[in-house]
Each structure stands twice: as C-alpha cells, then as structure tokens.
Amino acid sequence: MSPLIVCEDLWKVYRVGDVEVQALRGLSVTINKGEFVAIMGTSGSGKSTLMNILGCLDQPSKGRYQLGGVEVKGLQPDQLAEIRNRQIGFVFQSFNLIPRTSALENAQLPLMYRGLPLKEQRAVASAALERVGLKGREHHTPTQLSGGQQQRVAIARALVTSPSLLLADEPTGNLDTRSSLEIMEILEGLNRDGITVILVTHEVDIAAHAAREIVIKDGQVLSDRPIHHRVHS
Amino acid sequence: MSTFVWLTIMTALRVLRRNRLRAGLTMLGIIIGVGAVIAMVSIGEGAKLAVQKQIASMGANGILIWPNYSMIGGVRGGQGAVVTLTVADAIDLKKKIPLLAEAGWSRSGTMQVMSGGRNWSTTVIGASPSVLTIRAWAYSSGGPFTQTDMDTAARVALIGQTVVDNLFDPGEEPVGAIIRLKNVPIRVIGVLSPKGQSPSGSDQDDVVMIPFSTAERKVLGTSFLGSVGGVFASTDRAEDVFDAVDQIREVLRSRHRIQGDRPDDFIIRTQIDVAKVQEGTSETLTGMLLAIASVSLLVGGIGIMNILLVSVTERTREIGIRMAVGAKRLHIMMQFLIEAMTLSMVGGGIGVLFGVTAARLTSIIAGWPIVIEGETILTAFGFSLVVGLFFGLYPANKAARLNPIEALRYE
C-alpha cells in the first residue's frame, strides 16, 4: 500500500511570551492510504499541533510533511486552502457548523469554494446528507438538530469533496454514548469505502474502533501499534 | 465564482435581515448622505434650469444699456436722474456698429390701467418695435405692433398675462378690447406669452407695451423729447456680445463727449452677466450642500466599517470554519466586501427614495422647480457603492488575514 502521509522529523516551535514551547520534537510517522488510525495522547502532548499540521491548517517549523506525494511545507496560505478543499475533510469536537444556516448549505460549503454550479452543489450535498442518515433534514438549522445529528452534518460536509483524508478531532467528545457509537459506525463505513481516517481521541474505547493506535507524548511518538480486537469485527 | 458571489449576496441579505435594527442604524449615514445629494442636486439643477429659461426669455444675446447718474459740479444725481440716453443714441449705435442685429429703446412708468369696471396698477412700457424682437416676446394671441404703429403713434397695446388675468374674465378674449391708460383709449392687439419671473424676481408678465411714440406723446409724457429709460441691443451670435459691448461703450462715450478716464454716464449689462451671477449663486449653494452630503457619506462609511469590524469579531469562528473547508483569502475578503456593499447599496437605495421624495416635497411645498436626473441618481448610488467598498476593505482584509487555527478556537 502506498503512503498517503509521510512525516519526517517534524518540529513545531512557538513562543508564548518569553517562553519557547516545543510542541513537536522531531516526530516521524507514515500513514498509508486506506488506514484507520487513532492518535492518542494527553493534553499538551502535541497531538492537536500534529492534527493542525496534518490538516494543512498550520505549517511545521522544521521537517518534511508530504501529503499524497506533495510537499506541504513552504506552501502559501491559498495553496493550503486548496489542499484542504480538495483532499481533506474535517470533523471537529464542537461540530463547527455555521449557525443559522441549513444542514444543506453547511454541507455545500466546500463545494461553493470549489466553484461548482449551484445545482451540482445541492445534488452532491443532498447525497452526502443521505449517506449519513439525514435525509429529510436538509433544511434544519444546527439549533434544530441534536448533537449527533449536527456531527453527522459535519461529516457530510467533510464528505462532499470526496477527500482522501478525513481528520476527526475528538468527534465524539461532546456526544452521549449512543450518538458516539453512531458516529464511529459512520466513520468505519467511510474507511471501508477507502477513505483514510485519522482520529484524535483520548478515550480508549473510541480509539478501539481504529486499526492502528499511535500514542504521542512530549511531541514524539511514544508507541505505534496495530489494534487487533476491533469491536465490530 | 459567480455562484459564490450570488450565494454570498444571499447570505449577506440574510445577515442584514437578522440584524435589522443594527443594519438600519448603520445605513442611516448613507441614507442621509445619498438622500441629501439627490435632493440638493435636483433642487440645484431645477434652479439652474429656471435661470436658463429666464435667460432665454430675455433673449440670450441681449445687451441692456441704462442711463447712469451724472455729475454736475460735484452733485451726483441718482441713476437715471438726468437725461443721458436718447433715441438718437440708439439709432446711432445701430448705424455705427455692424455687429448689432437690432437696437431698440424704451421708457416705462407705473400706471393705472382700466377696462370696463376694473382697474389694475401695472408697468407701462413704451418701446420701439425692435425691442419686441430683441426680448424675444411671443404672443399667445394677436401679434406685435409695427413700425407704422410707431410712426403714427397708434393707440395699440400688447398686454401681459398678469394684466389679462386682472382686467378680464376667464375665457374673455382681450384682443380687440379697449383699455384705458390715463383716459386714453387704447386697443389691445396682442397678448404676450407668459415669461414668468425675471432673474431679479419681478413679474415679467405684469406689463402693458405700447409703441414708444404713443407713450411719449399721449400716455407717459416726457420732459425731454427723445429721452429713453433704456436701450436694448442684440447680436446675432452670442460670442459677439462682448465685442459689441466694447464698441457700444466707445460710441456712447464719444457721443456723450466723455473724455479721458471720466466715468461712463451709462451702464451696460448683458444677459450673460445676469445669468452668471445667478448660476454662481446656485452653484455655491449646491457645492455647500454637496460638501455636507459628502460628510454624511463619510460618516456613513465609518459606520459601516465599525459594524463590519464587530461582525468580523462576532463571526471569527465562522471565518475559521470557512477557511478549514477551503475558503481562500479572496473568498473571505469578498464575503465581507459584499456584505459592506450590500449594506451601502440598500442604504443608497433607501436614500434615493428619500432624496426623490424630499425633492418632490420641496417642489410642492416651496414651489421650487426641481430636475431629477437619472444620472444624479446613478451617481449618488454609485457613490454609496464606492463608500461601501472603501470602508469595507479594512474589515474584509482583517478577516482574510485571520489565522485559521486561532479563528477555529475563538470562543
């Protein structure tokens, strides 16, 4: 299997006042296409920083990051935006839907920035909402939806561009057990369809849905091992 | 891109609808600014048009010559106190200056005019027939008096609309009727078309015109045969007026034996002089009001900038989300620019309605003439757009430069 993500000796250093914080300290990791990876670690371990870099929201201070064979380091903000739009889908802990805007319009958003005709945007977004089980709720606004449903809208939004990489940052952090399970099932389904899923979590039983577990500590990989006892296999 | 612009406009309108009061208050400056521009320009243009009409009514190439005071042994009489202009002057001017198309003369006085049981105080003008041509009088009925009338001192008169209104019943035909001036019966042979107010505000239609000879010998009388109240001249072409004025001055000074640097005993005015003063006044007024309107637009623009800065802060997280799903800087910038322009355009639109209504009301209440031009409306509207664009740039740029990670984390 070919690698989707290649990180070599990633460093991220930033200053908070006079203090220099080393969030990543020479982290290296390779993730292949079609993998389902859980990244774990305590707060302050550097996992959020890693997620931001993997998601092309941030740039490493040093080191190499290749996504799909393309070197990301050194790209301009607009080029990063293009990569996010074409290749990456985000799912956040706090859903991050645009308030007072319908589920359909939220799901359409990435396609709008891609410049697709309105009809096509609607068709693709509707299909994505149907896939996450929200058919009939296209015109509900976030406040009219439950947490689980909002997260499913967010997943639909991540799906509309057919990304190669889905980044889920604590996707179940704000959800009850039942909704969490539903979301994880959707993610597993997407992974089975060939999308690479990277899941950031600190809950062991959520991480257990993945096939590989990478633990980060102090900005470095502490352990990297496959998970054999998958809950639904 | 067009889909994006369209969707963004819809979003902007939705945001405006949601914050109706806030949007309304923000737009107030633009509304007042645009409204003021349109109202003022409409009124200003109306005034200008009225002046132009008046110039046309006086004959655009007209030159007026009045007697000035004369100084006799250090005693200065008032204007026209001494006979300084005569019929002979006028005839000589016409003869000596080829540039002049016409030269005429007149004398006037205020008098009671009677018809049937009614009477009316009006200005009686005794004029040479050429005055009728120079001042470009038209006739709503009947026609002018002629050189023959002049030669025979015929008892014929042309009367203005105001005189008609005051001496005759509505619908009654004045032409052919006999009016009396100082008990001299005079036949009305024509009604002058209304000209309205003169630039100085007097009613040009409150007039009875009779041949100069008739006035001199039978109606107004004279203490010095041939003295006139004013000489009227005109040139064929407007550009010759100023040359003609110089030549008139030369001829009259020589005829009146005024030597060296002694002052003229006459005053020469052209219609262009009169018009310039009028136009200058209305332009000053329009300019001042435009300055006020600009200040209002400026304040409106600052209001828009302020509310957009608030909006950018309020929606930082939304900006972060948009960036995360692939919005480029230009997309974010355009979103806020479109929002600013929507605000200013809606404000501009309301301002247009407001301005047109204000101009109409002014015209109805004060009776001022107004001219509402599409060009004015477009310019004012365009201005509001530019204001929106200009004052939207800073907040839009601020939004576009947000760091996506910090924006996403913003509470």
Q: What is the 3D shape of chain A?
A: globular
| Number of alpha- plus pi-helical segments of chain B | 13
Described by strand count, sense and barrel closure, the largest sheet of chain B is: 6 strands, mixed, barrel
Order of strands across the main sheet of chain A:
6-7-8-3-9-10
Strand order of the largest sheet of chain B: 4-5-10-7-9-8
- Give start-end ranges of low-pLDDT stretches of chain A: none
* Helix/strand order of chain A, N-terminal first: EEEHEEHEHHHEHEHEE
Percent range for helical residues of chain B? 55-70%
Explain what you see.
The complex is a heterodimer of chains A (233) and B (411). Chain A contains 7 helices and 10 strands. Chain A is globular, with a radius of gyration of 17 Å. In chain A, the strands form 2 sheets. Chain A has a 6-stranded mixed beta sheet, with helices on both faces. A 4-stranded antiparallel beta sheet of chain A has the order 2-1-4-5, with helices on one face. Chain A has a single domain (3-226), classed as Rossmann fold (3-Layer(aba) Sandwich), CATH 3.40.50.300. In chain A, strand 9 (212-217) and strand 10 (220-226) form a beta hairpin. With 233 residues, chain A is an alpha/beta fold. The two termini of chain A are 22 Å apart. Chain B is α+β, with helices and mostly antiparallel strands and 411 residues long. Chain B has 2 domains: 2-54 and 276-409, no CATH class; 83-264, no CATH class. Chain B is 56% helix and 18% strand. Chain B is built from 13 helices and 12 strands. In chain B, strands 4-5-10-7-9-8 form a 6-stranded mixed β-barrel. In chain B, helix 2 (20-58) crosses helix 11 and helix 9 (271-314) packs parallel to helix 12 (374-400). Chain B is elongated. The two termini of chain B are 31 Å apart. The model of chain B has no long low-confidence stretch (mean pLDDT 86).
